[in-house]
Automatic annotation (TrEMBL):
Organism: Bicyclus anynana (Squinting bush brown butterfly)
Record-given protein name: Translation factor GUF1 homolog, mitochondrial
Gene: LOC112054063
Lineage: Eukaryota, Metazoa, Ecdysozoa, Arthropoda, Hexapoda
Signal peptide: none
The reaction(s) this protein catalyses: GTP + H2O = GDP + phosphate + H(+)
Pfam assignment, any one: EFG_C
Amino acid sequence: MVTIINKIWSFNSSAYNIRIFSRRSFRRAYGTNIDDKSIDISRIRNFSIVAHVDHGKSTLADRLLELTGVIKPGNETSQVLDQLQVERERGITVKAVTASLNYKYNKKDYLLNLIDTPGHVDFSNEVVRSVKACQGVIFLVDANEGVQAQSVAVHSLAKRNNLVIIPTLNKVDLPRADPENTKAQLKSLFNIAPDTVLSISAKKGWGVKELLEAVITRIPPPNVDLNEHFRATIIDTWHDKYRGVLCLAYIESGSIQVGQTVKWRSDLKQQTLKYLALLRPSEEPIEKAVAGQVVMVGCGPKGGGSVGDELLSLASAETTKVASAPTVKHMVYAGIFPADQSQHTQLSDAIKKLALNDSAVSVSIDSSPALGQGWRIGFLGLLHLDVFTQRLLQEHKAEAILTAPSVPYKIKVMGAKTIKQFKGEEAIITNPLQLPDPNNIVEYYEPFVIGTIITPVEYIGAVNTLCVDRRGTPRPSSAVDEKMMMLQYILPLSEVVVDFHDTLKGLTSGFASFDYQDYGFHPSSLVRMDILINGVLVDELTTIVHTSRLEYNARNMTAKLKEMIPRQMVQVAIQAVVSGKVYSRETLKAYRKDVTAKLYGGDVTRRKKLLKQQADGKKKMRSVANIKIPRNTFIDVLKR
C-alpha cells in the first residue's frame, strides 16, 4: 500500500493540461512540511492595496509579484492581476484579486496574502469585502495628483475596520511629482505624520523592497485561534465550467483539509471539501490550510456558497441558520432583455454565472410588451452597469438590450392594505410602472448622496454652479492645500449617476475628482411622466422625474420619439402626460397618397368623390388603427 503521496495532480480546465505539484512546492508555500500539525501564524500577513483610480495599484502589484519571484522582471504582460478582458481594455481594476506570495526576511519565510482592489467608486463593494480579510492596507497616493476624492473614502474605510495603514507615495520619479506637498495634504486631512510616509516608483521599482518589508514589520499577523472549530468567511465566488462554484475564503479559526466534511451556515447543508488551493495568482493545490490564510475552496459541481456565507466544521455549534451577507446599496436599476427571445435561456444562464462572480448586483424578473421577458438588475453605478453588460458579451457571448437606467425611489402610500403589491405604508420603487395611483401616494422620497469633490481653486466657481444646477445643497468645505479645495454637496442621486462625473471633468479640464456616499431617502417633489402614442400608454417609456425638470424632460422625450418613430399611414400624436395634463406634444405627419393622380379631366364631382372616400377611410383607420412601433425604435430610445 502506498503510504505517502509524492505528487498531487490538478486539472486546469481553462488550458486543458495537467500540472504537477511536488511536496517541495508545498514546503515553499508554507515554509514547513505539509505533514506538520501547525503552521506559524506569526509569519502570515494579509494586506490590501487601496487608492484612488489610476494611482498605480496594479503596477505596484506587478512589482511585488516580481520581487517575490512569481513573475520574471521585465515581463511583457503588465497588470498581471487584471485578468479580465474588460480590465485590460479599459485600464481599470474591476475585481479584487488575491495573490499568496512567499518572501524571506531576516532569514525567515513569510506568507503574504496580497489583495489588489479596484479604485473606482462603482466597485467599492469589492474593497469593502477585501478589507474584511486583512489586518493592514497600503494606502497609495499619486505624488503628482495628490489626495483625491476616493482616497478620502478608502482611508475612512480602513480606519473603520481598525486596519494598520501604511501611507505610500507613488510616481515620485515623474517631473511633476511634489512629494512634500502631498505629505502635507496627508497631514492636513488624515493627521498622518510625514516621517511615516514611504516614497516609491512602482513603474521603475524604486522603494518597493522597503515597502514590502514595511508590510512585514508594521502589519500584525492575523489574530486567530487554531484550537477552535473550523470557520471561514466567504469573500468572493465564481463559477468554473467543470468544478462548479469556487469560493475565496478567509479562515478565521481552526484548520481544514481536502476530504473533510463541512457545512454552510446559511442552510447547514453538509458537503465534502474537494478543492483547496492557494492563489499565486494561478491555482496551487494544497492539502491543508489553517486560520489566518486566504484560500480557494470548492465542494464539487453540486457545491454551493455565496458571498458573506460561512463554511463551518461539523463540530461547530449551530448558532444561526442565516448567513450575515453584507448589505449592498444599489444606486442604479436597468432592464436587461435578450436581443431575441430565443436567446432567453442563454442570457439567463450568463446572468446567473456573472451575478455569482459579482455579488454587488441584484437580479429580479421583469417583462415588457415590446421587449419580452427579461430582468431588472440593480448596480452600484453607471460604470458598473457598462462593465456588467460588456462582461456578458465577452465572457458568455450573450447579447443583451439595456434600457435607460433609473434610480430607486421610496413612496408612502395611503390605504396600503387595498393595494396588493404593497405590504406596508412605505415601499421602494425600482420600476416606474410599480407606482400606484397618485391619489394613493401621500409622499415621495428621493435618494440623496453626499458628494465629495476635490478640485483646483481656479475651478471652484464652475463646480459650485454645476452642483447648484443639479439641485445640490452645499456643506462646509475645507482646504486641502494652497491649490486644492475639498467641497461637499448633498445631491439627488438621479442628478449624479447619469453624466455628472463627465460634466465635472469637462469643466475642470480633468483635474477634479468625485466620490459619493449614501445619504438616505428624503422628501421630494416627484411625478410620474407617461408617454402616449395616439392616446395609448407606452409602458416602457414611463419615468419618474422631479417637477423642476418636468418640462425639459417632456420636450426632450417627445422630440426624440418624433425622430425615431417611422411615419405611418395615419397621423401619430406623441404626448408627454402627467396626471392627465399634456406637457409636450409632437405630431408625426401621415403618409399622403394622391388618389386623384389617375384623373385627367372630366367632372369635378369625380375628384370630390375620391377625396371624400380617402378622408372617410383615414377617419375609420384612426379609430381602429394600432400604431406599431418597431422594436429597434424602443431599443434606440430606451438605451442610455
